[in-house]
Amino acid sequence: MTDETFKPPVDATKSEERKSATVRQAQIRQAKARLAQGAKSAGNVNPITLDETYGELRDENRVVMRHTIALNLDSFRAAPEDFAARPARIYPPLQPVAAPFLSVIIPNYNGQRFLPTVLQALQAQTFRDFEVILVDDASSDNSVAWVEANFPAVRLLVNRRNLGFVKSCNAAVDAAHGHFVVLLNNDTEPEPTWLAELTQVICANPQAAIFASKLLLFDQRNQIHTTGDLLGQDGIPRNRGVWENDQGQYDQGGEIFSGCGGGSAYRKTVWQQLGGFDEEFWMYLEDADFGFRAQLAGWSAVFAPKARVYHHLSATGGGTLASYYVGRNTLWLIVKNMPTALLLRNLPQIVGAQVKIALEAARNYRGAAARARLRGQLAGLLGLPQQLRKRGVIQQRRQIADQALAGKLV
Which residues, including other chains, have CB under 8 Å from residue 64's CB and lie 6 or more apart? Predict the structure, then answer.
């Protein structure tokens, strides 16, 4: 016999393992090549995916590896020998805190001279279940520091830059803890029973989303600024009772179309459902627009005649600013919200009102407010495509019939 006769037999199992390992290594090299080529073309090479250990993992394990190890591999550092873990700290359990019934929100822009009056009036309220939020729109006066020093219980929201009245209100409502939010101008003085009277009307009207106060002039306290907003068939919002002497002619309460944002309460759930004020309005008529959308959604607005607030008329606004935004936002208010049947029915009145305003402004073109009104109307026309897109969503969700809504217009 030769020596070959006694050669040990080849271990078939080991041969197969070597063959499998060779094939696996080839597959890994091919996978690396594909990954490298893909990463190169994408301009982003991830070295973790080219690691042999990572590459040998089964597909179902790669997600686990990626989330538990791979993402932290670059920042991983071994603990030193003298490492000592922080001792566990035991904190007392959080105490449950009941949300206030009301959140009173005061938008402020350079209104420090008015803040003592309004904040002291809120301190004197007979109804106490409320919080106060002052949202400051990047004032250049000392408003924020003064409130911090003199009214530390007031919650402060401070914008780094001027965002406008509407965005400030929306941000404050988002931060509010109350079940109802109450917007109050900084240049006002509510009577001590204001919130108590407002709360009674809120509780008596579960079908309503908006609750309007009676606003009177600060310096002529028997003269009405508004007892709630109305909307004409021509699409022009109106202050009910404006410039009339208050002789109790509106003290019966009842339904209105919407409320003035300078002294009205809003059901927070409805506010959130409707998306709050339209931030493209910036300021002026945002309250009428919200009221219109609330009416379309099937909610009502009511007047609280004994909830009285005294207001410095246009103390922090007005003039050319108001003329521009009212001119623009009136057109957007109509286009967004007026149902098609009512829009067609009232079109002659709507167009006639806008033409009349434009002609009046043209006759007084030398005045800055008149020119601002014309610029506002032009901006309103140029912005109609965006408002038409909003209209599609609003009208699709409408819950009130044309006839019922027509009965609410004057």
Answer: none
CA torsion 54→59→61→67, rounded to 10°? 70
Q: List, in order of start, the domains of the chain with CATH numbers.
A: 102-317 (3.90.550.10)
Q: How far from 179 is each of 246, 262, 266, 293, 365, CA to CA, in Å? A: 31, 19, 9, 20, 47
Q: Would you give the end-to-end CA distance of the chain in angstroms?
A: 122
CB atoms within 10 A of CB 110: 16
The one-letter amino acid at 78 = A
Residue identified by tokens 């049947």 is 341
Consecutive 10-residue runs of the chain (410 residues): their mean pLDDT?
46 58 66 59 51 50 48 64 80 84 96 96 97 95 94 94 93 96 97 98 97 96 95 95 94 94 96 95 93 97 97 71 93 96 96 94 90 94 94 94 94
Six token digits for residue 321:
């600013």
How much is the pTM?
0.75
DSSP 8-state class, residue 262: T
Query: Any residues with CB less than 8 A from the CB of 24 and at least 6 apart, and which?
Result: 56
CA atoms lying within 13 Å on the CB side of residue 167: 14
Distance of CA 200 to CAs 24, 86, 147, 284, 370, Å? Answer: 79, 54, 30, 28, 42
Query: In angstroms, how far is CA 122 from the centroid of its own chain?
Result: 25
User: What's the half-sphere exposure (Cβ side, CA atoms, 13 Å) at 179?
Assistant: 9
Distance CA 75, CA 67 (A): 14
How far is 187 from 312, CA to CA, in rounded Å? Answer: 6
**Rounded to whole angstroms, how far apart are CA atoms 149 and 158?**
15
Q: Which helix (H) or strand (E) holds 216?
A: strand 208-217
Single-letter amino acid code for the residue at 26: A
Tokens of 219: 């310096």
